[in-house]
Design a protein that fits this description.
Structural class: alpha+beta
Largest sheet: 4 strands, mixed
Oligomer: single chain
Number of helices: 2
Distance between the termini: 58 Å
Strand content: 25-35%
Strand order of the largest sheet: 3-2-1-4
């Protein structure tokens, strides 16, 4: 059994909870993707200690939409060269091919060729 809240919920939170309960006719539609159809690409920032020095690094990630299988590669920068190396060389080699329909990019500045 769930532990009751010690403080009363704010009025809006109570209303939202009631809205969810009253949404019996609502339906969710899970996303479905065909095998090898598409992938998603993003760069994320993280820190790592290398030779005793804290370094700011960038994680390239390409994830297949159907299986969730992903390739992660760390780079010292978020340059176009890093993007092209990560996506169009290393990730495709690691996955053994290229998605057949599309690759979705998450607002990647490095993906834009000036």
């Amino acid at each position: 059994m769930a532990t009751p809240l010690k403080e009363p919920l704010p009025e809006r939170a109570r209303a939202c909870r009631g809205e969810r309960r009253s949404c019996a006719g609502c339906h969710s539609h899970p996303q479905t993707h065909l095998v090898a159809e598409e992938a998603e690409v993003d760069f994320g920032e993280f820190s790592a200690v290398i030779a005793g020095v804290v370094m700011k690094l960038f994680m390239f990630c390409l994830r297949l939409s159907h299986s969730g299988k992903a390739v992660h590669i760390a780079y010292a920068n978020q340059s176009q060269e890093s993007f092209l190396d990560g996506c169009h060389v290393r990730a495709f080699e690691a996955l053994g091919g290229v998605p057949v329909a599309m690759i979705r990019y998450d607002n990647l500045t490095p993906a834009v060729i000036p």
